[in-house]
Design a protein that fits this description.
Blueprint: H1 4-9, H2 11-14, E1 18-30, E2 34-40, E3 48-53, H3 60-64, E4 71-80, E5 88-99, H4 114-118, H5 128-150, E6 154-155, E7 161-162, E8 203-204, H6 209-219, E9 221-229, E10 242-251, H7 255-276, H8 278-288, H9 292-301, E11 305-308, H10 309-318, H11 335-346, E12 350-356, E13 372-380, E14 384-391, H12 396-405, H13 414-421, E15 427-433, H14 434-442
Parallel strand pairs: 3-5, 6-9, 11-12
Antiparallel strand pairs: 1-2, 1-4, 2-3, 4-5, 7-8, 9-10, 10-15, 12-13, 13-14, 14-15
Helix pairs in contact: 5-7, 5-8, 5-14, 7-9
The chain binds 4-amino-1,4-dioxobutan-2-aminium adenosine-5'-monophosphate (4AD) and magnesium ion (MG).
Protein name: Asparagine--tRNA ligase
EC number: 6.1.1.22
Keywords: Ligase
């Protein structure tokens, strides 16, 4: 049999020939003489129309009754239909029912709400929207690997179970064994969680950055691409407990090199998807977010804006807009502030740099002013922050001071500090939220709808 993707892309090669296709019924209607069944095999966004006639299909009655989601194997001639909406159809000579489907199949031919589809995560990949989302998700992953591999970056697998808090924010899920007998106990018989795994308290990683730095100082250019976990109890449309992150780390690079890398990566990904998923993108533009294609085309052909945190605060203070959260130098920018800056002032992606050190992680490089750090966040219209990164503090004494100031324990970071002792050049990197870039490219507005099996504080199934 041949996949629909092949038929749709090399149609001429099959014109007038006999083909065999397998797929699931999307629609089926018939009279007592002939019928039309649309089948989709998941290899392509579109379905193929199959025409079947009572005259030459021996099990005509059975096919006419085949319900949505039944699986068929069709043998027939591929006929070009230049006048019709679809470029071709198949005139069936034989159809075999490979699997029947119950009549209570929840995905009938109508538009279902995203909330409803979320409740049937095991079936929603079969809907048009999620077929498009998850193919794009797969292609974005591939584009990211290509972008870095073409530039000789080494892909490093950082640990999922870890003893260090990379962000120093204490938002970690603890890892423990379920075998209660094997758990270390205190003298009073209570479980001693500080002696959990290999004699150390362990957690699910919040970021692979610190380990990526060790590889950057050996390979120069590296990146991670893996799952990360955050135990923040924020029930928003942009936060998940389990999400994927891409973290490049580059030796001999400063914050400006970092921004250039991030900007060219985002543009590369968007161009790749526009070229390799045109049908899916047309669908998003029509049904999910009108104006999406114009916006994405604009992004790839224009430079991103760059402002400092201090400039951002000035812009916000000068605006007539009433913010719920008052603006003062030193505050962490809230979603409403980020949206105002990207959506109303610049109307394009904006790098915000040099944040106050108090609101950023311990590893960021302290600037000359002693108050700000060489941080860079990339904010985009519609989604907000999609990248967080920085130039790293490569000076040993400064780093120790920051660790202590933040109330962290120097001994937990001994190997990280070692990197500063042995050839610790300047270096920089960032983390791209994988789901956030998928949201940005597809126009989907809830992170639960770009994760195959979303893990949020309220998920139940799976
Ligand atoms: O800004 P964050 O916390 O930065 C880091 O973790 C650094 N260690 C990255 C680095 O410099 N190597 O997270 C990076 C990005 C955010 O900009 C956001 O896009 C995404 O990860 N992110 C989340 N995505 C979904 N759900 C969450 N709970 C997220 N938290 C962060
Ligand atoms: Mg951040």
């Amino acid at each position: 049999d041949v996949q629909l993707r092949k038929l749709f892309t090399d149609t001429d090669q099959y014109a007038g020939k006999e083909v065999v296709v397998r797929g699931w019924v999307r629609t089926n209607r018939s009279s007592n003489k002939f019928g039309f069944v649309e089948i989709n095999d998941g290899s392509y966004f579109k379905s193929v129309q199959v025409v079947y006639e009572e005259e030459n299909i021996e099990n005509y009655e059975q096919i006419a009754k085949a319900p949505i989601a039944a699986a068929l194997c069709v043998i027939g001639e591929l006929t070009l239909t230049p006048e019709a909406k679809q470029p071709f159809e198949i005139k069936a000579t034989k159809i075999v029912v490979e699997a029947d489907s119950d009549a209570d199949y929840p995905l009938q031919k109508k538009r279902h709400s995203l909330e409803f589809l979320r409740e049937i995560a095991h079936l929603r990949p079969r809907s048009n929207t999620f077929s498009a989302v998850f193919r794009v998700r797969s292609l974005v992953a591939y584009a990211i690997h290509r972008f870095f591999q073409d530039q000789n970056f080494v892909y490093v697998h950082t640990p999922i179970i870890t003893g260090s808090d990379a962000e120093g924010a204490g938002e970690m899920f603890q890892v423990t064994t379920l075998d209660l007998d094997k758990l270390p106990r205190n003298d009073d018989g209570k479980i001693d969680y500080s002696q959990d795994f290999f004699g150390k308290e362990t957690n699910l990683t919040v970021s692979g950055q610190l380990e990526a730095e060790t590889f950057a100082l050996a390979f120069r250019n590296v990146y991670t691409f893996g799952p990360t976990f955050r135990a923040e109890n924020s029930n928003t449309a942009r936060h998940a407990s389990e999400f994927w992150m891409i973290e490049p780390e580059v030796a001999f690079a400063d914050i400006n090199d970092n921004m250039e890398l991030a900007e060219s990566m985002i543009k590369y990904i968007i161009n790749y998807i526009l070229e390799h998923a045109p049908e899916e993108m047309k669908f998003f533009n029509e049904f999910i977010d009108k104006g999406l294609l114009d916006r994405l085309n604009n992004i790839v052909s224009n430079e991103f804006a760059r402002i400092t945190y201090t400039e951002a605060v000035e812009i916000l203070k000068k605006s007539d807009k009433e913010f719920q959260f008052p603006v003062e130098w030193g505050i962490d920018l809230q979603t409403e502030h980020e949206r105002y800056i990207t959506e109303e002032v610049f109307k394009k992606p904006v790098f915000v740099t040099d944040y106050p050190k108090e609101i950023k992680a311990f590893y960021m490089r302290l600037n000359e002013d002693g108050k700000t750090v060489a941080a860079m966040d990339l904010l985009v219209p519609g989604v907000g922050e999609i990248i967080g990164g920085s130039q790293r503090e490569e000076r040993y004494d400064n780093l120790v001071a920051r660790i202590n100031e933040m109330g962290l324990h120097e001994k937990d970071y001994w190997w990280y500090l070692d990197l500063r002792k042995y050839g610790g050049v300047k270096h920089a990197g960032y983390g791209l939220g994988f789901e956030r870039i998928i949201m940005y490219i597809t126009g989907m507005s809830n992170i639960r709808d770009v994760l195959p099996f979303p893990r949020t504080p309220k998920t139940a199934e799976f």
